[in-house]
Amino acid sequence: MVASPAFSTLQMFRYQRHLKAESGKSGGRNRRSGKSGEDLYVTVPVGTLVRNADTGEHLADLDHEGATLLIAEGGKGGKGNAHFVSSVRQAPAFAQPGIPGVSLTIDLELKLLANVGLIGAPNAGKSTLLAAISRAKPKIAPYPFTTLHPNLAVVDFEVGDSLVVADLPGLIEGAHVGAGLGTQFLRHIERTAVLVHLIDVHDATLLGKDISEVHDVIVNELRLFDPSLIDKPRLIALSKIDLVSNEEVEKIAGQLRQNLPIEIYPISSVTKKGLSFLVKAMREVVSISHELV
Ligand SMILES: Nc1nc2c(ncn2[C@@H]2O[C@H](COP(=O)(O)OP(=O)(O)OP(=O)(O)O)[C@@H](O)[C@H]2O)c(=O)[nH]1
Ligand SMILES: [Mg+2]
User: Across residues 177-205, what is the average pLDDT?
Assistant: First the structure.
């Protein structure tokens, strides 16, 4: 099994559940040995965890590009009777049988490796933000639940370093009991250094929503999925500020600041306003958390 960034889901194993390397060929006349079977390399996304399904034993965490794990060793060919010929035994009546290869059942689990996770309600503008700060082209649409699987993208900096950002499906109240797309996809942000929580200010002002409640719904779903997600550094991005007045943005930011000791970044992925501050903050938090580990 080899980890490759070419894939970001385990979708390909949904239907193809049995994987078998080629068998070796039989030997032939004139003392010819059979051809060995080709090794089978199975490509999986970077971040795949491999367990033995019968014993639960952890076999590997394929956490970087090119990480390779020998899952099942092939067998060994036997030796025909010609191998045992000697001066006194010209046609031996025995041969050595081959040794069969290993077969086993494994469980695969994918935990994407991103530095930053984008979270928030459906339609908050997560995919649009990802598209605005990277070269990714995720699906964007003016309705909820456009994103069904996480999208990963690389955000490059002039100085040569980069961040991997994961755009996740939207969260709604009750996601932990299966509402909307549920919360299973949150496992992909268990290893990120920072979460960026997008809150759509246009939607909030239009509908006169209580911004603290809008915020708390998402945080509550994170907590119910895994309380340690709440301990991660988190930034708030107030999205779609091009659609509301500066006064409204300030009012909402002020209301959030009253209750939360958290940094707030007003952004528009359309006009690009505020994006460079947000991206700089992501990078700072990621580098601080790397120094800590
Ligand atoms: N005016 C404006 N519209 C935006 C902005 N960001 C996103 N939108 C629009 O908001 C809608 C939803 O954007 P998406 O990026 O698909 O939202 P999402 O958070 O990824 O939504 P889900 O994948 O459904 O969770 C789209 O119609 C976008 O064009 C913004 O900064 N300004
Ligand atoms: Mg989306």
Answer: 93
